[in-house]
Every structure is written in C-alpha cells, then in structure tokens.
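User: Round two. Same drill as before: sequence, then structure, for each protein.

Assistant: Same drill it is. First protein:
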Amino acid sequence: MLSRSRGERAMETESEPYVRLATLRQLHKVVTDLNTARSLADTLQTVADGIVAGLGYELACVNLVRPDGDLVVAAFAGSAAAEALITGRVGSRTSWDRRLSMGEAWGELRFIPHTEGWVLIEDDVPQWHTDGPEPRFEDEWHPQDRLYAPMYASGGGRELLGVISVDRPRNGRRPGPWGQEALQMYASQAAIAISNARLRANMQRALVRLEREQQALRASEESFRQAFEYAPSGMAIAEMGGDQHGRLLRTNDALCRLLGRPASAMRRYSFADLVHPEDVGTLLRTSAEGGRAEIRLGRRDGSYVWVSLRNSVVADTADGPRFLLTHVEDIEDRKRHELQLAHRASHDALTGLPNSAELRARLSSRLCERPHAAYATDIEALDAAYETDRGFRSDGFDFDTIGGRPYDHHVHTVAPDSEIDDGAKGLAVLFCDLDGFKSINDRFGHQTGDAVLVEVARRLTTGVRDGDTVARLGGDEFVVLADGLGAADAADLAVRLRNAIILPIRVGGRGVRVGASFGIGWASCGMSVEEVLQSADQRMYIEKRSRSKVHRRAG
C-alpha cells in the first residue's frame, strides 16, 4: 500500500489553518441549524443532513434508541436508495453494543476497519453496502470501513440516545484528528438538540393542554409543574407587562443550581439584572415569542456562565399573554470549545502566535479599497467639508459629508513619509527573517529549531506594546504590526527587536545564536494586504543584502 509523498503532506499542512477555519465556519452553521428544527423528526433529519452538508461525508444515518432499548434507523441523508432500504428498520441493542466495543476508539468515536468489520455482515443491524476500488494509500477509506459517533444525554449517566453512522468521506481518506474532533463535537451537539427537541415536545404538549382543556386546568398545571421542576435544563417564569415586567416569578432547581442562587433570592431579579453588561443589548433584542439568545448570566460568586435562552409565551384565555416561559440551557462547555477551536484555527500551533490567516485578517480590517483623502490632517478635511454644500436626503434630513463625499466614518490608514520624519504616525509592518536558522536545524535537529522559534516568538512579544500584533508567517518568518509609529519609531523598534533576538538562546544545555533581518513597510488604504506584506518583505531583503554575511550569520 502506498504512502503520500512529503510534498503532498507539506501542501496539506500549509493549507491546514484555512481548512480548519472553513471547517469551523461550516460546523458552526450546521450546529446552528440543529436548534432551528421544530419537531423531533425534523431534528433527526437535520442531524443527518448536517453531516453530509458540513462534515464532508457522502452518507449519514441516525440510529435512535427506542424505549425498549433497540435502535431504529430514524433519518438518512446522501442516498435516496439507501434511505428507502433501511429507514425504519431496527437493530438490537446487543448488536449495537458489540459494534461500539470493537475496532479503534477515537475519543468518543468508534472506527471499525474493514479488516475487522467482516464479522458484522450477518448481524441484525440495518446496513448498506458501498462499492469502490481497493485503497491505494494507508489512510484511504475502504468501502467496508465503519465509523460511528455515539450520542449521549447530558449529565454523568452517559445514557445512550443514539448513534450516527457515516460513510464515504469526500476526500477519500480516513478523518484525521481535526475531522475526528469535528465529528465528535457535532455528535455532542446533536445529542443536546435531540434532548431539547424531546423537551420542547413535552413542553408544547403541556401548553396545548393548558389552552384547550380549561376544565382540566388543575391536571394540566400539575403536568406543567413536573415538567418545569424536573427539567434537566434551567427553566423560569417571568412577569409580562405592568410595572414588574420581566421579574422572575418562579425558577426550577436546575436554574438555581446553575447560577448558585436560592429560589427565594431569584424572585428579586429579572434576567436584565443578571446579564453581563456586554450582553444587555442582545437580551433586549430578544423577542418574547420564540425569541432565542446566547448570553452570559451572573452567578452568586461573581463569575458568569454562558447560557442559551429560548422564550415562549404562556397565554391566559381571559387577559391574553401574561407570563414568559424561558428555557435556560448551560452552553459553557460548547462556548469554551468553540473559542478553543477558533484559537487553534487562527494561531500557530508551535509558538501560539497569530498565524498567517489571522495576520491577514487583522491587517485587512485596517484597510479599505479607497485611497486616503488628499487632506493632510483631519482638521483640513473638516474645513473642506464646510466649504461645500451639505448633502440632504429626500426626506429633508441632512447627512455628513467631507469634501463633497458622504462621510463613511472609516478612519483611514496613511503611511508616513519614509524620507522625512515630519511627526506623522502610521501602521508599521515589520517583516522579520531569521539569519542562520537553517544551519541550526541542520546541525542540531528540528527539535532545537522549534525551541529557537518559540524563544524568538517570546522575545518579539515581550519587545512590543500591548495591542501590537506579533504573527508567524511560517518557517522562520515573523511579522509585527505596530500602530501609531513614525518612521524613526519604527526603525528604533526594529533595532530593539533585533538586539533581543541575537542574544544567545539556551537549548538542551548549549547556547545557539540566530540573527535577524527586518524590513519596515507601511500599511495604507488603497493597498491590498498582499501589497503591504510584499513591500515589507522587499525592504527586508534589501536590508539583508546591505549587511555583510558576517553580521547576519548566527553565532
């Protein structure tokens, strides 16, 4: 069996941050879709569709645990023929337990290679068979490979809700660590969505009974009370209208435990009193009927926890809507995981610095396509505005103009004159290339080289101000973004950073040295990100050639 070439693996590694970012965005979209389904059946189909649409598999099947413990094929995506063949068929729990104990454990996932899966062909689990050529590479997907993602209910009991089966990765290879983690995270979110769909169904049935069965009001209230009190997620009932609008009337034990506050104390608050200051606007924009929001609520100890709020109106037949029913779900773990994934997708794994994609994003946010106005200062731009007629809209209200153009409130980035230091400030782009780093790698190995890169990253970060950006482009190239500098300031910064880098670095009991060449470029509106980086790169090579090899060589 063949293995992929070093060049193929290198190309794959270079594009990995972009693949991760694209995967994260697609994963976020399909996870969001899980919470929009209205019924349990819609949720199950959305789970299957999300695998095919967002995770790179051609076929996906959702097997749901029935009350008797067996698993039924509840949803299928990717093949109408296979869907017609196995949807609704049942596999015994014994056979499923056997499958989930075989093969290789990839975290929560279970992978059964074709070399072991042949013994499962005759068991009673519904399955489909795909044809295809024998794999040519060691990590290529075999038509008889099996990959399962169990879905467990929230809490410590690890109650099995169902199993997601996937087949035929679009890239033709077994998923790597990133793909495995994405599938495992999706299965976790799918389990939450299925549990919530069941909870919503129970709550909706309780509300329908409250509206349609006035004569059985007491029985309906008791049913609602039990669903409310014993719900695994937080629940709250709040006042609607009047002077006490939003005040919490009743909270269940799950919400009190989540926020660390007794029920008696909760009745003194509204969610507006508990929300994080930065999330007040989000809460206020959330509608009463069907509104949902992800915000942070304050705990008794002063910390905050991420929650998902979902509102429903409990109507009274006599007076109209009276109470607001809010479902509060703890999403702290998901938010933390999303932040970790986002950080890993935008930062260099070795040094922890922003990577090339993140650097370009930060630089792009400071640039616009229109070159800076031909006014030397903001005062001159304002003076020019008063020398022209003010603009008026068709409704009679005026809008701001500068120099006859509508003012877009964008603060333009301007490059100071590199020839004359007239005090002008701009966004300096320092392109750093290490001198002598290759010889260290060749003499002492990549482990020593990695340690040097980590130390250089630390020294660069220590040598800049808070708010400046130090990023690793790749290899031994780094870029520093420093705003508010003049030409002399940028030159002084380059000297300080070079002097910090050339000091000996202790690795494995030996001292090694690297040199550094810096090129100073300037970001300016009207330039593209690539033009800005290329300008700094060219200046770096000019500076490198202008110094003798003796001064550039590592010590």
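Second protein:
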Amino acid sequence: MPEFAASTVRMRVPEDAMSLPVREARVDLDAWAAEAAARRVGPDDDEPRLRQALAAELREAAADSRERGPITALSYVPEPRLGELARIELSALVADDTYPAMTVDLLQRYLAAPTPVSYRPPEAQLRTLPAGPAVRVRHAYVQDAGRDGLGTVLETCAYGIRADETWGLVLLTSWRALARTDVLCELTDELAETVRVTL
C-alpha cells in the first residue's frame, strides 16, 4: 500500500463548489449530474434548459477528473448560468524508485516545467503551509491550438505540498475565465491553507 493510504487528507470545500464523484466508480454520472444540477439551479420549473446544460457540464467535469484519479475533485460553480468557473483537484504524488524522496524541489520541477503549450513561463514561489513545506506555481497553457497557433488559454494555480519524505500533495485549480484569475488564485491560496494531513 502507498504510504499515504494510512493518512487522512482534508480540505475545506468552498461555498458554490460541488464535489465530483471521482472515487465512486459505481456512481451513474448521468443521474448524479442531473441531481446535482437540479440542486445547484434550484427547483424552478422554468429553468429546464439551464439544468440540462449544467448537468452536461458537470457530467463531463466528473468524467474528466475521474481519469486522473485525484483524492478529491470539485467543480466551482458560483453562477450556474455561466457553468463551471473552475476545477479544483487534490491529488497525491508518491515517491518511487526513480525519485525515492519527496522534496519541495521535486514538486517544483514537476509543477513548473515549461511545456510546448506553455503560454508564458511558470511562476514559482516557496511557501510554508499547515500541511508542510510547499511551492506555489502559476502557469498558463494554450489548449486546442489550431494550425494558426491560436487556441484557448487555460490558467492554473497549483500548490505542491510535501506531506513527508515519501509522498506529497498537489492542489490544482484550473480555469479559462481570464478575467477571474486574481479571484481564483486567492481562492486557491485560501484552500491551500486548509489542507490537513493526519495519520
């Protein structure tokens, strides 16, 4: 068993965030998304298209996050009419034979590595959190670029947190609403402060 399997990881769920069923393989995503959208939009009968659109987006979000297998994943939906504003995922990284010790430097290299689709260079800052030493990395990528090089900009704010020498955590918030970057970085900063690990 991985070292972190005996640990409990907790993080505050922000208001307007919906927990995605990423660890429950037997959950029917269509049924879950329809119910979650109805709860978020409200019971008004004059909003069926809004509920359907949000349900489709939540189902896609859950399926997408499920592929990565995070500890937990949240869809941040402060305004249901606008759909998912951001995705928040908390994942575990475990040291292995190639990297036998988990370090903040290793987390920084993992999170701040430039890629061919980087929109601008990553920005990294060392931090100290209640859950352990950490690195905060802001990055932006170009997704679905066409032949002309134009595409959608995806921004991220991530924390790599060293829980102990054998494993770490990655808190990743991603979004496309560039006008909300400062607010979403602040939200990620607040959530990082709430991450707790207990044995």
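DSSP finds four helices and nine strands in the chain.

User: Perfect.
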